[in-house]
Design a protein that fits this description.
Layout (H helix, E strand, L loop, with lengths): L5 E6 L12 E4 H4 L12 E4 L2 H8 L6 H14 L3 E4 L8 H7 L3 H18 L8 E2 L4 H13 L10 E3 L8 H13 L4 E3 L4 H7 L5 E4 L1 H7 L17 H17 L18
Length: 268
């Protein structure tokens, strides 16, 4: 049987960090609003909130120094942080239109963010992210890292950006396969359930908010009398994750790159 993926559940509610028993993916934009922080009950990873920030402002308004300090605070007070995304620049066509820049400029700024954060806080678990829209873009981004002295194939994890809002999972599968063949250990941001089954074996880890989208269309679970649906329900999220991992394992992905020894991974 294939090993289960290191699957981080996207969480709207940061306080799940001290309630959940499975890996979470939490946004800095949400976590920064918390007045009090407590030791985490689970492993977790941090989203920088880039899509929202660029959508709102067309640029990053959070200084790198402030973000690095926030991640340092989370590491010290919450603990259990597996990795943090940099202040990257998404490359969806509508995002490029929003910023008024080009895909290449977004890629250059993404690489620069990783280098800057690594310089500011070399002890924190920032990961690089490869951004692009077409396969050639992603390969160009890999070359940008290489030119900056960063060999992605030697790093434990590299984020695969600008994939969660695509319609075609087959296109993403080709991109993931190409990058994985070059030795990159990938984290898929915002992977849909169909994408996990199609190209999950090419990833080391992934995060997903698909559970919340599904819950929004369904009535609340029996016993969940406090809400009309379970779009923000820890119980629904937990059951969804177990079901997805069971379905994934049942497919027998013997060649899976998901490693149960990685943070967030679990034996099937």
């Amino acid at each position: 049987m294939a090993s289960s993926p290191a699957l981080y559940v996207g969480a709207h509610q940061p306080h799940w960090l001290w309630r959940a028993a499975f890996p979470l993916f939490v946004s800095h934009r949400q976590l920064a609003r918390r007045r009090s922080l407590h030791p985490a009950s689970c492993r977790w990873a941090l989203d920088s909130g880039g899509f929202t920030e660029l959508s709102l402002h067309g640029r990053w308004v959070t200084p790198a120094e402030d973000y690095a300090q926030a991640v340092a605070t989370y590491t010290g007070r919450i603990g259990g942080l597996d990795f943090a995304a940099p202040q990257d620049w998404m490359c969806e066509p509508w995002m490029v239109e929003r910023t008024g820049l080009s895909v290449r400029e977004h890629q250059e700024r993404t690489v620069a963010s990783y280098l800057r954060l690594r310089c500011l806080a070399p002890g924190l678990p920032f990961i690089p992210v490869v951004q692009g829209w077409r396969l050639a873009d992603y390969l160009h981004c890999v070359r940008l890292y290489d030119s900056a002295g960063v060999d992605l194939a030697r790093l434990p994890l590299t984020g695969l950006g600008s994939v969660c809002r695509r319609q075609s999972t087959a296109e993403i599968a080709v991109i993931a396969a190409t990058l994985a063949s070059r030795g990159l250990r990938l984290h898929g941001f915002g992977v849909k359930t169909g994408g996990l089954h199609l190209y999950g074996h090419l990833l080391n880890s992934a995060d997903s908010m698909a559970w919340s989208y599904a819950a929004r269309r369904l009535p609340a679970l029996p016993g969940c009398s406090g809400h009309k649906n379970c779009a923000n329900c820890l119980t629904f999220a937990s059951r969804w994750r177990r079901r997805v991992l069971a379905q994934y394992a049942a497919r027998g992905h013997q060649a899976s790159l998901f490693d149960p020894a990685m943070p967030g991974g679990e034996a099937a």
